[in-house]
Each structure stands twice: as structure tokens, then as C-alpha cells.
Write a structure and sequence with these properties.
The chain is α/β, with parallel strands linked by helices. The chain is built from seven helices and nine strands, in the order E-H-E-E-E-H-E-H-E-H-E-H-H-E-E-H. The structure holds adenine.
Amino acid sequence: MRIDVLTLFPDYLSPLRLSLVGRAIETGLVELGVHDLRTWTHDRHRTVDDTPYGGGAGMVLRPEPWGEALDELLGPDTAPDADGPRLILLTPSGRPFDQALAAELADERRLLFGCGRYEGFDARIAEHARTRVRTDEVSVGDYVLNGGEVAALAVIEAVVRLVPGVIGNPESLTEESHAPGHDRLLEYPVYTKPPSWRGLDVPAELFRGHHARIAAWRQEQARARTRERRPDLLPPAEQPVVVAEAGPG
Ligand code: ADE
């Protein structure tokens, strides 16, 4: 897989050279290019942003450097193509990133990431990109970061660990929270040695070596945890009933 990242802060992406993703790059499973958007500016100040039309606070990313960067990275005459690259623009107003999208992106041969900053991208950046390459605007959660770099790190890590060969034991991918076929439950609690620590004991069910009972215990724990922390993940029939508050009178 080839990954290119467009950013105003290339150093922000340096953690990708560490750990699992770093090893995937070293072994050649993943090829990474990080590009400074200012490479595609032509004025003395290397300007990438300007004030919003219609007024309002903050600055907006101008479209020209993005257009030129994509021209260079994609080459001329590209059109959106199922076998071609896919562009992910990171923005808090994007579609929510989740494990299903991570799995989809892990199947691609080439991904490009665009990291926004300031008040966001001029809307024509995505509109024009869609004419050249499959494009998604993606958010990593309902909160606002200072820019898309940390979001890109999260997405790239979630995607690269699903690329075959990156994780030694693929079983660890199917057991974890949000894994497909997991009934969308959170992961059950896990324990290791010592059996007793500061007055806290490992649940006795895990010592009996009875595989079916351990599996049933884990399933129940995962359900209880999901009910408590993420009821929105439960199947509709198990969703807690919300009783509308009666209005005055
Ligand atoms: N840029 C700023 N906040 C973001 C978010 N939540 N997701 C993706 N990109 C962002």
C-alpha cells in the first residue's frame, strides 16, 4: 500500500515512523510520503490560507495549493476509478470514521490524506478533488482538533494494522472491540498475572479451564459493558427505551 499525506506540519506525522506502522514501512509493506503543502505555493510568504468570503472568524485554506499538489501526486488526466487512489480529507464536518471504513481503506492500494487547518478547506477543494479521485471527507469524532494531522495519524494507524502481514497474529484483530462479526460489542475485560493484586481478584470463571463457560462469561461481560458505556451499539431490540419527558401542564 502507498500512503501520501498532505499537511502544513509534516513533523506532526513523524510518529508514523515508530512501532508497528514504522515496521510496516521498513519492511516495505507500506510506502509513506509526507508532503508539505507549502511546496505548492508561489508567493514570498508561501500563503496557504485567506479570510472567508461572507465574513466570520478565522482563515480558510485556499484551493490552489491543493489543486497543484493533487495534480502532481495523482499525475495528469486522472478520473475517479474503483482501482485508483482514494483521497481522505480530514475535517470535523466529515463522515464518522469507524472500523468498517478502516477495513475498506485497508483494501486500497493507494491512499492520500489531506489535513485541514484553521477554519477548514475551501469547499471547492473537495468538490474539485471528486472529479479526479474517489474522495471522502472524514471525521475522527465529535470534537474539534487544531488540525487534521492527529486525525490522519489515527486513521492511518487503524488502517495499516489491518493490512495483511502487518500484525503477526491476525487472530488478535478478530477478537477486539469493533471488529466485524463481533456483534458490535465492546471487548470484554481481560486479566493477566498476578491472580490477586491489591485486594482485587481475577474473576474465578477464568480459572476453570472450561472453554464454553469462559466464552459465555466473556460474552455477557461484553454485553454488560456495551449496555453501560455504548448502548448505541446494541441491536435495536436491546436499545434502552427513552421515555420522553412530559412538558409543562
Ligand atoms: N480536524 C479537526 N478536528 C477534526 C476531527 N474531529 N476529525 C478530523 N479532522 C479534524
